[in-house]
Amino acid sequence: MPTYEYKCSSCNHAFEAIVPMAKRKTPTRSSCDICGKKQVKQVILTCPNMGMDSCHDIHKASGGFKSAMQRVCESPGIKNSKRASELKDRYNL
Fold it and tell me: Is 17 helix (H, G, I), strand (E, B) or coil?
């Protein structure tokens, strides 16, 4: 389940809640735990920064993304198929 951030417009109390997507508006219908006013708003949701590291280098000789794509191309379900040749061309395998 995603973590959503909320903030009270009255007292600026900020908090997080782990709720299903379908119920993400539920905290906005309740009153603030600090001041008791019903001015809780959902803050814009941001995703965590997912930086690339050396394991994700496409051109790395062994390990990483390139070798993973080679294994995909050699897997029984895709080997010698049109998709395998497309992947090989795309990633210079």
Answer: strand
